[in-house]
Design goal:
The structure is a single chain. The protein is of the alpha/beta class. Helix content is 52%, strand content 13%. The strands form two sheets. Strands 7-6-5-8-9-10 form a six-stranded parallel beta sheet.
Protein backbone atom coordinates (compact mmCIF):
# COMPACT_ATOMS: atom_id res chain seq x y z
CA UNK A 1 0.00 0.00 0.00
CA UNK A 2 1.23 3.52 -0.82
CA UNK A 3 0.16 7.15 -0.38
CA UNK A 4 -1.05 9.01 -3.46
CA UNK A 5 -1.76 12.76 -3.60
CA UNK A 6 -3.53 14.53 -6.45
CA UNK A 7 -3.96 18.28 -6.13
CA UNK A 8 -4.14 21.75 -7.57
CA UNK A 9 -2.79 24.91 -5.95
CA UNK A 10 -1.66 28.50 -6.41
CA UNK A 11 1.70 27.10 -7.54
CA UNK A 12 0.22 25.39 -10.59
CA UNK A 13 -3.07 27.11 -11.44
CA UNK A 14 -4.54 30.62 -11.80
CA UNK A 15 -6.95 31.79 -9.11
CA UNK A 16 -9.79 31.72 -11.64
CA UNK A 17 -9.37 27.94 -11.97
CA UNK A 18 -8.94 27.45 -8.21
CA UNK A 19 -12.26 29.21 -7.74
CA UNK A 20 -13.97 26.66 -9.96
CA UNK A 21 -12.58 23.76 -7.91
CA UNK A 22 -13.08 25.39 -4.48
CA UNK A 23 -14.85 23.36 -1.80
CA UNK A 24 -17.33 24.16 0.93
CA UNK A 25 -17.52 21.76 3.94
CA UNK A 26 -20.25 19.65 2.36
CA UNK A 27 -18.34 19.35 -0.90
CA UNK A 28 -15.21 18.21 0.95
CA UNK A 29 -17.15 15.31 2.47
CA UNK A 30 -18.52 14.34 -0.93
CA UNK A 31 -15.05 14.47 -2.47
CA UNK A 32 -13.68 12.14 0.21
CA UNK A 33 -16.57 9.73 -0.36
CA UNK A 34 -16.02 9.86 -4.12
CA UNK A 35 -12.32 9.11 -3.69
CA UNK A 36 -13.16 6.07 -1.55
CA UNK A 37 -15.42 4.89 -4.36
CA UNK A 38 -12.34 3.82 -6.32
CA UNK A 39 -11.64 0.11 -5.85
CA UNK A 40 -7.94 0.74 -5.31
CA UNK A 41 -8.39 3.43 -2.60
CA UNK A 42 -8.59 2.26 1.02
CA UNK A 43 -8.21 5.59 2.88
CA UNK A 44 -8.84 9.20 1.89
CA UNK A 45 -9.10 12.78 3.08
CA UNK A 46 -8.86 16.28 1.60
CA UNK A 47 -6.89 19.42 2.44
CA UNK A 48 -8.95 22.40 1.30
CA UNK A 49 -7.74 26.01 1.66
CA UNK A 50 -8.13 29.29 -0.19
CA UNK A 51 -5.22 28.35 -2.44
CA UNK A 52 -5.13 24.54 -2.66
CA UNK A 53 -7.30 21.44 -3.01
CA UNK A 54 -5.45 18.15 -2.38
CA UNK A 55 -6.82 14.61 -2.20
CA UNK A 56 -4.72 12.31 0.01
CA UNK A 57 -5.29 8.58 -0.38
CA UNK A 58 -3.84 5.21 0.55
CA UNK A 59 -3.92 3.02 -2.56
CA UNK A 60 -2.93 -0.49 -3.57
CA UNK A 61 -1.88 0.57 -7.05
CA UNK A 62 -0.86 3.78 -8.80
CA UNK A 63 -2.42 3.37 -12.23
CA UNK A 64 -6.18 3.47 -12.09
CA UNK A 65 -6.10 5.44 -8.85
CA UNK A 66 -4.39 8.54 -10.24
CA UNK A 67 -6.71 8.68 -13.24
CA UNK A 68 -9.78 8.39 -11.03
CA UNK A 69 -8.70 11.06 -8.53
CA UNK A 70 -7.66 13.44 -11.30
CA UNK A 71 -11.05 13.00 -12.92
CA UNK A 72 -12.75 14.06 -9.67
CA UNK A 73 -10.97 17.42 -9.71
CA UNK A 74 -11.58 17.90 -13.44
CA UNK A 75 -15.30 17.22 -12.96
CA UNK A 76 -15.35 19.54 -9.97
CA UNK A 77 -14.09 22.43 -12.12
CA UNK A 78 -16.70 21.95 -14.80
CA UNK A 79 -14.04 22.76 -17.41
CA UNK A 80 -12.59 20.68 -20.22
CA UNK A 81 -10.03 18.05 -19.32
CA UNK A 82 -7.42 19.80 -21.46
CA UNK A 83 -7.96 23.03 -19.51
CA UNK A 84 -7.49 21.47 -16.06
CA UNK A 85 -5.12 18.53 -16.46
CA UNK A 86 -1.92 20.57 -16.99
CA UNK A 87 -2.54 22.32 -13.65
CA UNK A 88 -2.83 19.15 -11.55
CA UNK A 89 0.12 17.65 -9.71
CA UNK A 90 0.66 14.14 -8.39
CA UNK A 91 2.92 12.92 -5.57
CA UNK A 92 3.34 9.24 -4.86
CA UNK A 93 4.64 7.31 -1.86
CA UNK A 94 7.95 8.88 -0.68
CA UNK A 95 7.15 12.03 -2.67
CA UNK A 96 3.72 12.25 -1.04
CA UNK A 97 5.27 12.10 2.43
CA UNK A 98 7.73 14.87 1.57
CA UNK A 99 4.98 17.03 0.06
CA UNK A 100 2.66 16.81 3.09
CA UNK A 101 5.48 17.62 5.51
CA UNK A 102 6.36 20.69 3.41
CA UNK A 103 2.70 21.74 3.32
CA UNK A 104 2.31 21.41 7.11
CA UNK A 105 5.52 23.38 7.65
CA UNK A 106 4.21 26.24 5.48
CA UNK A 107 6.87 25.83 2.80
CA UNK A 108 4.27 25.39 0.06
CA UNK A 109 2.00 28.26 1.16
CA UNK A 110 1.36 31.44 -0.76
CA UNK A 111 2.79 33.35 2.21
CA UNK A 112 5.70 31.01 2.91
CA UNK A 113 5.82 29.95 6.55
CA UNK A 114 2.32 31.12 7.47
CA UNK A 115 0.83 29.20 10.38
CA UNK A 116 -2.79 28.77 9.33
CA UNK A 117 -2.00 25.75 7.15
CA UNK A 118 -1.22 23.73 10.28
CA UNK A 119 -4.83 24.12 11.44
CA UNK A 120 -6.08 23.27 7.95
CA UNK A 121 -3.97 20.10 7.94
CA UNK A 122 -5.44 19.19 11.32
CA UNK A 123 -8.92 19.82 9.93
CA UNK A 124 -8.24 17.43 7.03
CA UNK A 125 -7.30 14.71 9.50
CA UNK A 126 -10.41 15.41 11.60
CA UNK A 127 -12.63 15.29 8.51
CA UNK A 128 -11.24 11.93 7.42
CA UNK A 129 -11.57 10.51 10.94
CA UNK A 130 -15.18 11.67 11.32
CA UNK A 131 -16.09 10.09 7.99
CA UNK A 132 -14.29 6.86 8.88
CA UNK A 133 -12.15 7.40 5.78
CA UNK A 134 -8.77 7.69 7.52
CA UNK A 135 -7.11 4.48 8.66
CA UNK A 136 -3.69 3.61 10.11
CA UNK A 137 -1.65 4.81 7.11
CA UNK A 138 -3.04 8.33 6.71
CA UNK A 139 -3.55 8.77 10.45
CA UNK A 140 0.14 8.06 11.09
CA UNK A 141 1.23 10.26 8.18
CA UNK A 142 -0.93 13.25 9.16
CA UNK A 143 -0.10 13.00 12.86
CA UNK A 144 3.58 13.07 11.98
CA UNK A 145 3.06 15.98 9.56
CA UNK A 146 1.38 17.96 12.35
CA UNK A 147 4.28 17.19 14.66
CA UNK A 148 6.73 18.35 11.98
CA UNK A 149 4.76 21.57 11.49
CA UNK A 150 4.81 22.27 15.23
CA UNK A 151 8.51 21.48 15.45
CA UNK A 152 9.45 23.92 12.67
CA UNK A 153 7.58 26.70 14.44
CA UNK A 154 9.05 25.83 17.84
CA UNK A 155 12.66 25.63 16.65
CA UNK A 156 12.72 28.51 14.15
CA UNK A 157 11.37 32.05 13.95
CA UNK A 158 9.44 31.32 10.76
CA UNK A 159 6.16 32.52 12.32
CA UNK A 160 7.65 35.92 13.05
CA UNK A 161 9.68 36.12 9.86
CA UNK A 162 6.86 35.11 7.50
CA UNK A 163 3.50 36.93 7.53
CA UNK A 164 0.09 35.34 7.61
CA UNK A 165 -1.88 35.64 4.40
CA UNK A 166 -4.07 38.34 6.00
CA UNK A 167 -1.09 40.36 7.25
CA UNK A 168 0.63 40.09 3.88
CA UNK A 169 -2.53 41.21 2.08
CA UNK A 170 -3.03 44.23 4.33
CA UNK A 171 0.64 45.17 4.02
CA UNK A 172 0.32 45.01 0.25
CA UNK A 173 -2.89 47.06 0.26
CA UNK A 174 -2.10 49.78 2.80
CA UNK A 175 1.66 49.59 3.32
CA UNK A 176 3.25 49.54 6.77
CA UNK A 177 0.88 52.09 8.33
CA UNK A 178 -1.32 49.48 9.97
CA UNK A 179 -4.99 49.91 10.80
CA UNK A 180 -4.79 52.44 13.63
CA UNK A 181 -7.78 54.77 13.45
CA UNK A 182 -9.44 52.78 10.66
CA UNK A 183 -12.87 51.17 10.60
CA UNK A 184 -12.65 47.55 9.41
CA UNK A 185 -15.41 45.29 8.16
CA UNK A 186 -14.77 41.55 8.01
CA UNK A 187 -17.16 39.53 5.83
CA UNK A 188 -17.55 35.90 6.92
CA UNK A 189 -17.13 34.02 10.21
CA UNK A 190 -15.01 30.99 9.30
CA UNK A 191 -11.35 30.25 10.02
CA UNK A 192 -9.97 32.87 7.62
CA UNK A 193 -12.41 35.48 8.91
CA UNK A 194 -11.31 34.66 12.43
CA UNK A 195 -7.70 35.24 11.44
CA UNK A 196 -8.67 38.49 9.70
CA UNK A 197 -10.54 39.74 12.77
CA UNK A 198 -7.65 38.83 15.08
CA UNK A 199 -5.19 40.57 12.74
CA UNK A 200 -7.31 43.73 12.56
CA UNK A 201 -7.46 43.78 16.36
CA UNK A 202 -3.69 43.24 16.66
CA UNK A 203 -3.05 46.08 14.17
CA UNK A 204 -5.10 48.47 16.34
CA UNK A 205 -8.15 48.94 14.13
CA UNK A 206 -10.41 51.63 15.59
CA UNK A 207 -13.62 49.67 14.92
CA UNK A 208 -14.22 46.08 13.81
CA UNK A 209 -17.53 44.82 12.44
CA UNK A 210 -18.09 41.19 11.49
CA UNK A 211 -20.78 40.64 8.85
CA UNK A 212 -22.08 37.14 8.26
CA UNK A 213 -25.12 35.33 6.89
CA UNK A 214 -25.63 33.69 10.30
CA UNK A 215 -25.73 36.54 12.81
CA UNK A 216 -25.01 34.33 15.82
CA UNK A 217 -21.66 33.28 14.37
CA UNK A 218 -20.80 36.90 13.59
CA UNK A 219 -21.64 37.87 17.17
CA UNK A 220 -19.52 35.06 18.57
CA UNK A 221 -16.46 36.06 16.52
CA UNK A 222 -16.88 39.81 17.04
CA UNK A 223 -17.30 39.28 20.79
CA UNK A 224 -13.80 37.83 21.06
CA UNK A 225 -12.30 41.12 19.90
CA UNK A 226 -14.71 43.73 21.27
CA UNK A 227 -16.21 44.19 17.83
CA UNK A 228 -19.73 44.62 16.47
CA UNK A 229 -21.77 42.16 14.40
CA UNK A 230 -24.23 42.61 11.57
CA UNK A 231 -26.30 40.36 9.29
CA UNK A 232 -25.40 40.01 5.63
CA UNK A 233 -28.34 42.11 4.45
CA UNK A 234 -26.70 45.12 6.12
CA UNK A 235 -23.43 44.67 4.23
CA UNK A 236 -23.89 47.69 1.96
CA UNK A 237 -24.53 49.98 4.95
CA UNK A 238 -21.48 48.67 6.76
CA UNK A 239 -19.27 49.10 3.70
CA UNK A 240 -20.40 52.72 3.42
CA UNK A 241 -19.02 53.34 6.92
CA UNK A 242 -15.75 51.42 6.47
CA UNK A 243 -12.19 52.31 5.57
CA UNK A 244 -11.06 48.70 5.01
CA UNK A 245 -13.10 45.64 4.04
CA UNK A 246 -11.71 42.10 4.30
CA UNK A 247 -13.87 39.44 2.67
CA UNK A 248 -13.47 35.76 3.52
CA UNK A 249 -16.92 34.25 2.92
CA UNK A 250 -16.22 32.30 -0.28
CA UNK A 251 -19.89 32.21 -1.16
CA UNK A 252 -21.09 30.89 -4.49
CA UNK A 253 -21.85 34.31 -5.92
CA UNK A 254 -20.50 37.85 -5.55
CA UNK A 255 -21.28 39.63 -2.27
CA UNK A 256 -19.72 43.05 -2.96
CA UNK A 257 -20.81 44.83 -6.15
CA UNK A 258 -19.81 48.23 -7.60
CA UNK A 259 -23.18 49.68 -6.55
CA UNK A 260 -22.35 49.02 -2.88
CA UNK A 261 -19.11 51.05 -2.92
CA UNK A 262 -19.62 54.81 -2.73
CA UNK A 263 -16.28 56.21 -1.62
CA UNK A 264 -12.57 55.64 -1.06
CA UNK A 265 -12.01 52.15 0.22
CA UNK A 266 -9.40 49.41 0.61
CA UNK A 267 -10.78 45.93 -0.07
CA UNK A 268 -8.89 42.71 0.55
CA UNK A 269 -10.63 39.70 -1.00
CA UNK A 270 -9.24 36.47 0.44
CA UNK A 271 -12.21 34.33 -0.53
CA UNK A 272 -12.24 31.41 -2.92
CA UNK A 273 -14.40 31.83 -4.98
CA UNK A 274 -13.99 35.62 -4.83
CA UNK A 275 -16.53 37.69 -2.86
CA UNK A 276 -15.91 40.98 -4.68
CA UNK A 277 -16.86 41.76 -8.27
CA UNK A 278 -13.65 42.52 -10.22
CA UNK A 279 -15.23 45.75 -11.52
CA UNK A 280 -15.07 47.16 -7.98
CA UNK A 281 -11.32 47.54 -8.43
CA UNK A 282 -11.88 49.96 -11.31
CA UNK A 283 -13.79 52.45 -9.17
CA UNK A 284 -11.97 55.72 -8.33
CA UNK A 285 -10.39 55.72 -4.90
CA UNK A 286 -10.76 51.95 -4.48
CA UNK A 287 -7.83 49.61 -3.88
CA UNK A 288 -8.78 45.97 -4.44
CA UNK A 289 -6.31 43.21 -3.54
CA UNK A 290 -7.32 39.65 -4.40
CA UNK A 291 -5.52 36.34 -4.26
CA UNK A 292 -4.11 36.79 -7.77
CA UNK A 293 -2.41 40.10 -6.93
CA UNK A 294 -1.29 38.74 -3.58
CA UNK A 295 0.37 35.72 -5.18
CA UNK A 296 2.37 38.02 -7.46
CA UNK A 297 3.32 40.32 -4.59
CA UNK A 298 4.49 37.48 -2.36
CA UNK A 299 6.48 35.66 -5.03
CA UNK A 300 10.10 35.40 -3.94
CA UNK A 301 9.65 37.40 -0.72
CA UNK A 302 10.17 34.60 1.81
CA UNK A 303 12.55 35.01 4.75
CA UNK A 304 15.50 33.11 3.31
CA UNK A 305 17.36 32.25 6.52
CA UNK A 306 14.31 30.99 8.40
CA UNK A 307 12.97 29.12 5.39
CA UNK A 308 16.32 27.39 4.97
CA UNK A 309 16.17 26.27 8.60
CA UNK A 310 12.63 24.94 8.13
CA UNK A 311 13.66 23.08 4.96
CA UNK A 312 16.46 21.43 6.91
CA UNK A 313 14.07 20.22 9.61
CA UNK A 314 11.60 18.94 7.04
CA UNK A 315 14.30 17.04 5.14
CA UNK A 316 15.47 15.45 8.40
CA UNK A 317 11.93 14.46 9.37
CA UNK A 318 11.13 13.02 5.94
CA UNK A 319 14.26 10.88 6.01
CA UNK A 320 13.48 9.62 9.52
CA UNK A 321 9.86 8.83 8.65
CA UNK A 322 10.76 6.95 5.48
CA UNK A 323 13.49 4.98 7.24
CA UNK A 324 11.10 3.96 10.02
CA UNK A 325 8.46 3.02 7.46
CA UNK A 326 10.86 0.89 5.45
CA UNK A 327 12.04 -0.85 8.60
CA UNK A 328 8.45 -1.47 9.71
CA UNK A 329 7.69 -3.03 6.33
CA UNK A 330 9.79 -6.10 7.17
CA UNK A 331 8.10 -6.70 10.53
CA UNK A 332 5.35 -9.06 9.26
CA UNK A 333 7.97 -11.15 7.44
CA UNK A 334 10.21 -11.30 10.52
CA UNK A 335 7.26 -12.29 12.72
CA UNK A 336 6.22 -14.96 10.23
CA UNK A 337 9.80 -16.29 10.12
CA UNK A 338 9.99 -16.55 13.90
CA UNK A 339 6.58 -18.24 13.97
CA UNK A 340 7.83 -20.79 11.44
CA UNK A 341 10.95 -21.41 13.53
CA UNK A 342 8.80 -21.96 16.62
CA UNK A 343 6.69 -24.49 14.73
CA UNK A 344 9.83 -26.34 13.57
CA UNK A 345 11.21 -26.43 17.12
CA UNK A 346 7.88 -27.62 18.54
CA UNK A 347 7.63 -30.33 15.88
CA UNK A 348 11.16 -31.59 16.60
CA UNK A 349 10.53 -31.64 20.35
CA UNK A 350 7.34 -33.61 19.76
CA UNK A 351 9.35 -36.02 17.60
CA UNK A 352 11.91 -36.31 20.40
CA UNK A 353 9.16 -37.12 22.89
CA UNK A 354 7.92 -39.85 20.59
CA UNK A 355 11.40 -41.37 20.14
CA UNK A 356 12.47 -40.98 23.78
CA UNK A 357 9.28 -41.31 25.83
CA UNK A 358 11.22 -42.10 29.02
CA UNK A 359 13.26 -38.89 28.95
CA UNK A 360 13.07 -37.31 32.42
CA UNK A 361 11.47 -33.86 32.79
CA UNK A 362 14.71 -32.08 33.80
CA UNK A 363 16.63 -33.36 30.78
CA UNK A 364 13.73 -32.63 28.43
CA UNK A 365 13.54 -29.03 29.73
CA UNK A 366 17.29 -28.59 29.20
CA UNK A 367 17.06 -29.96 25.65
CA UNK A 368 14.05 -27.72 24.91
CA UNK A 369 15.87 -24.64 26.18
CA UNK A 370 18.98 -25.49 24.16
CA UNK A 371 17.05 -26.03 20.91
CA UNK A 372 15.11 -22.80 21.33
CA UNK A 373 18.32 -20.90 22.14
CA UNK A 374 20.00 -22.24 19.01
CA UNK A 375 17.01 -21.21 16.87
CA UNK A 376 16.96 -17.72 18.42
CA UNK A 377 20.69 -17.23 17.84
CA UNK A 378 20.45 -18.38 14.24
CA UNK A 379 17.61 -15.94 13.53
CA UNK A 380 18.87 -12.98 15.54
CA UNK A 381 21.54 -11.66 13.17
CA UNK A 382 19.49 -12.04 9.95
CA UNK A 383 16.44 -10.30 11.45
CA UNK A 384 18.51 -7.43 12.86
CA UNK A 385 20.38 -7.00 9.59
CA UNK A 386 17.25 -7.13 7.45
CA UNK A 387 15.76 -4.24 9.46
CA UNK A 388 18.95 -2.23 9.05
CA UNK A 389 19.11 -2.92 5.33
CA UNK A 390 15.40 -2.17 4.85
CA UNK A 391 15.95 1.23 6.48
CA UNK A 392 18.26 2.28 3.67
CA UNK A 393 17.28 3.41 0.21
CA UNK A 394 17.38 1.11 -2.77
CA UNK A 395 15.31 -1.02 -5.08
CA UNK A 396 15.84 -4.30 -3.18
CA UNK A 397 12.86 -5.59 -1.22
CA UNK A 398 14.58 -7.27 1.71
CA UNK A 399 11.36 -8.55 3.23
CA UNK A 400 10.56 -10.35 -0.03
CA UNK A 401 14.09 -11.74 -0.21
CA UNK A 402 13.74 -13.05 3.36
CA UNK A 403 10.41 -14.65 2.53
CA UNK A 404 11.88 -16.31 -0.55
CA UNK A 405 15.01 -17.58 1.23
CA UNK A 406 13.02 -19.23 3.99
CA UNK A 407 10.08 -20.26 1.76
CA UNK A 408 7.59 -18.44 4.00
CA UNK A 409 3.91 -18.89 3.30
CA UNK A 410 2.61 -15.55 1.85
CA UNK A 411 -0.66 -16.07 3.72
CA UNK A 412 1.26 -16.25 7.00
CA UNK A 413 2.85 -12.86 6.31
CA UNK A 414 -0.53 -11.40 5.35
CA UNK A 415 -2.09 -12.75 8.53
CA UNK A 416 0.51 -10.93 10.61
CA UNK A 417 -0.23 -7.71 8.72
CA UNK A 418 -3.98 -8.09 9.27
CA UNK A 419 -3.31 -8.60 12.96
CA UNK A 420 -2.07 -5.02 13.18
CA UNK A 421 1.60 -5.08 12.20
CA UNK A 422 2.43 -2.50 9.45
CA UNK A 423 2.40 -4.03 6.00
CA UNK A 424 4.66 -3.84 3.00
CA UNK A 425 5.36 -0.23 2.10
CA UNK A 426 7.56 -1.07 -0.85
CA UNK A 427 7.04 1.33 -3.74
CA UNK A 428 5.20 -0.13 -6.69
CA UNK A 429 5.65 2.87 -8.96
CA UNK A 430 9.00 2.71 -10.78
CA UNK A 431 11.54 4.92 -9.05
CA UNK A 432 9.10 6.15 -6.43
CA UNK A 433 9.50 9.75 -7.55
CA UNK A 434 6.66 12.31 -7.48
CA UNK A 435 4.65 11.75 -10.62
CA UNK A 436 3.07 14.62 -12.53
CA UNK A 437 0.30 15.17 -15.02
CA UNK A 438 0.99 17.71 -17.72
CA UNK A 439 4.65 18.08 -16.78
CA UNK A 440 4.11 19.67 -13.35
CA UNK A 441 5.09 18.36 -9.93
Amino acid sequence: MSVLVVGISHNTAPVSLLEQVALDPGSAQKLVAAALGNEHVTEATVISTCNRIEIYTEVDRFHGSVESLSRLLVERSGADVEAVLPHLYVHYDDGAVSHLFQVAAGLDSMAVGEGQILGQTREALRLGQELGAVGPALNTLFQQALRVGKRTRAETDIDRAAPTLVTAALRHAIGEDGLAGKRVVVVGAGAMAGLATATAHRLDADEITVVNRTLARAESLAGEYDGAAAPLDELADRIAEADVVITCAGARGVLVTPEMVTGPLVIVDLALPHDVAPAVGDLPGVTLVGLSQLAEALHGTDAAEEVAAVRGIVAQEVAAFLTARRQASVTPTVVALRSMATEVVDAELARLDHRLPDLDAKTRAEVMQTVRRVADKLLHEPTVRVRELAGGQGAISYERALAELFALDPEAVSAVTRAGVPGDATRTDPGGEPRSLGGRS
